[in-house]
Amino acid sequence: MSQMKIRKAVFPAAGMGTRFLPATKATPKEMLCLVDKPLIQYGVEEAVAAGCTEIIIVTGRGKTTMEDHFDRSPELEASLAAKNKTALLEIARSVSKLAKITYTRQPEALGLGHAVLMAKELVGNEPFCVLLPDDIVDATTPCMKQMVEAFNETQSSILGSEVVAGDAIQNYGCLDCTPDPKNPRLLAVKNMVEKPKPSEAPSQNAIIGRYILTPRIFELLEKLTPGAGGELQLTDGIKALLQFEKVYGFSYEGKRHDAGDKQGFLRATVELALKHEKLGPDFRAWLKTFPL
Ligand code: UTP
């Protein structure tokens, strides 16, 4: 069988972002700015670094600023060009040149599984990746690139995973899995459960917002019934996929920030600002003046 290649990345971005109210009342969570760019741009850059050339963003009402962000901005560009601000002009242009971006709508926020299903026609019959834009992964090799490399070996669905401490597992999809003897970063999945009670969690291996899925997932998502929280859960669709195909967890190398949560967002801001090539040194010096 010929090797399947990953070319397309789906970004579910139609949620209501209630954890970040009031900031997200009229502004999409995915457009919240982390240091100097919106959350969704970090994800799109990661997908492009992983070799994706087609980006599919699942949007909803009130989310059109995302489309403007990735589009050309002729007035801004003309104004910067007239003032000879070439570095800024390059920044403005580069965002619109990142990849081919297509948008589709989720009419109602019925859950992550339903959001991914909205991309069915645009993805077609090929494996694809899913990135949740509020999970920011800071890694030497971009997280999705690591996962695409693993997919090239396994040709199976792969779920980004990390070990979380204690009761935190109740906030995630949880894997019942065993490490692959040949590649310890790969975890062979036996079962999975969305947001388990800590006492019932089969492991501390949580699913994070990075997935590579085979196209069979769509027929299973179509059959979903509401799961945890009354939502159509992607985890339930992947659990159904397990009956037909192998599914792996993948312990990625890197550090994840849940930037969809206020505390996680603050931590990500400080860590990424400290690492920022231009802003970092001054920010570090300023931070040191704080009597903490
Ligand atoms: P989250 O659960 O983090 O997003 O979903 P949310 O529902 O917007 O946030 P809270 O919990 O109310 O604060 C992860 C990603 O999935 C998308 C969200 O936009 C987010 O990027 N999502 C979620 C959808 O596109 N549709 C949905 O029905 C649910």
Descriptive account of the structure:
This protein is α/β, with parallel strands linked by helices and 292 residues long. It has one domain (8-284): Spore Coat Polysaccharide Biosynthesis Protein SpsA, Chain A, CATH 3.90.550. The protein is built from eleven helices and 13 strands. The chain has a nine-stranded mixed sheet. Strand 9 and strand 10 (186-194) form a beta hairpin. The longest helix has 14 residues, at 262-275. It is globular. It starts with 7 loop residues before the first strand and ends with a helix. 38% of the residues are buried. The model has no long low-confidence stretch (mean pLDDT 95).
Largest sheet: 9 strands, mixed
Q: How is the CATH topology named?
A: Spore Coat Polysaccharide Biosynthesis Protein SpsA, Chain A
Average pLDDT, all residues: 95
Question: Could you say which structural class the secondary elements and strand pairing correspond to?
Answer: alpha/beta
Classify the helix fraction into a percent range: 25-40%
Order of helices and strands: EEEHEHHHEHHEEHEEEEHHEEHH
